[in-house]
Amino acid sequence: MVLLSLSVVIIVSGVWFSGTNAYKFMKGYLLFKTGEISSATASTTSPPLKEAKKKKADLYPERPKIGEMMGSLSIPKIDANLPIYHGTDEDELEKGVGHFAGSVLPGERDNSVLSGHRDTVFRKLGDVGKGDLLEVTTEAGTFIYKVRKVRIVDADDRTVIVPTPRPTLTVSTCYPFNYIGDAPERYILIADLIESKQ
Question: Does residue 64 sit in helix, strand or coil?
């Protein structure tokens, strides 16, 4: 009987704890990922969050389609101006820089990920490093990023596409640059948004 009573107390406590904390977790997660929260939590939304939601919606009223040209990437250090296509399949990478469709669009809060081939568009990317500027122009405006960090990671390392709390641009290409065949590593530039011109 004592064991049965103890089991009931644990189950009830677990349900109560899960219910109250699941709500808080989901609210925080949605706010972090999208800058907006569901209508179920709208009553607790403060005016600044409503303004942030409106600004995000205004930035890109329509999302690009896979294969569509969505802007350009300018890299002053290497005098490059490259077209950006939405998607990172071979079709997009043959034409220019690819935007990883699972990441946010340039200028939005979180991590926007661009990739390109080392033997075509990113042939000189190795000359770009910490402190250099990356300029992305889309229908939403021009976004200037400053490289904060350079990383060299294994080809299967997915830590480059993790969420970030601020607007970030991650640029990736195969490494080493002079490697023949499928390169075993990736050259990564991580840049923070420092200016927006909308």
Answer: coil
Query: Which residue spans within 155-184 are E strands per DSSP?
Result: 168-175
Question: Has residue 64 been placed in a domain?
Answer: no
pTM of the predicted protein model: 0.70
Question: Per residue in 72-126, pLDDT tens?
Answer: 999 999 999 999 999 999 999 999 999 999 999 999 999 999 999 999 999 999 9
Q: Is residue 117 annotated as a catalytic residue, yes or no?
A: yes
Annotated catalytic residue within 27, 95, 117, 148? 117
Q: Residues 55, 79: one domain?
A: no
Do 90 and 11 belong together in one domain? no
Measured between alpha carbons, how far is 117 from 112 in angstroms, rounded to an integer?
17
Give me the CATH number covering residue 93.
2.40.260.10
